[in-house]
């Protein structure tokens, strides 16, 4: 009887150790060990639905939660930032969809996303390209933009 109880306690302890280990893996993979991606603005292609239509990539029109989109650049173009002061076009849903990759990394639309977040818009229209951001950057190299940029002040 004692032997069976010891076996039960031992197997339960092993199960708890395994569960704790899995929890640690999940926590670390979504925080300090996860890889954030960052690109300079001139590395990213400036895309539109028309450009995607002429490419070999498929995409889906979707509405996603704004919070799930992962920006990959911090640089901004001053002229675009000035033009974006009037945000009524965002509130009236008159913007071009943001372009994201299969993992929700933002490829095109960082200025629009800034305004969308400032206005507290919870859902956003996107074109989700069926490729990784690296594949998209390589394929659309000719659509890079070399406008002068700046790093905005962090709030």
The strand count comes to 4
Task: State the CATH architecture of the largest domain.
Answer: Alpha-Beta Complex
Strand content: 5-15%
Structural class: alpha+beta
Instruction: Give the C-level CATH assignment of the largest domain.
Output: Alpha Beta
Oligomerization status of the protein chains: single chain
Q: Tell me, what's the shape? A: globular
Task: List low-pLDDT spans.
Answer: 24-34
The tally of helices reads: 6
Following the backbone from N to C, one meets helices and strands in this order, namely: HHEHHEEHEH
Largest sheet: 4 strands, mixed
CATH topology of the largest domain: Conserved hypothetical protein from pyrococcus furiosus pfu- 392566-001, ParB domain
Tally of structural domains: 2
Q: Termini, distance in Å?
A: 65 Å
Q: How would you state the average pLDDT, rounded?
A: 77
- What percentage of residues falls in helices of 4 or more residues? 25-40%
């Amino acid at each position: 009887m004692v032997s069976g109880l010891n076996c039960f306690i031992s197997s339960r302890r092993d199960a708890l150790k395994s569960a704790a280990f899995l929890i640690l893996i999940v926590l670390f993979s979504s925080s300090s060990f996860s890889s954030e991606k960052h690109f300079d603005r001139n590395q990213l292609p400036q895309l539109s639905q028309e450009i995607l239509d002429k490419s070999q990539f498929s995409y889906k029109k979707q509405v996603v939660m704004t919070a799930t989109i992962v920006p990959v650049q911090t640089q901004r173009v001053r002229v675009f930032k000035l033009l974006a002061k009037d945000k009524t076009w965002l509130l009236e849903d008159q913007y071009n969809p943001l372009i994201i990759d299969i993992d929700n990394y933002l490829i095109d639309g960082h200025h629009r996303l800034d305004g969308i977040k400032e206005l507290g818009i919870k859902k956003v229209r996107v074109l989700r390209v069926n490729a990784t951001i690296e594949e998209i950057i390589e394929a659309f190299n000719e659509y890079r933009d070399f406008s002068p940029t700046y790093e905005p002040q962090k709030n």
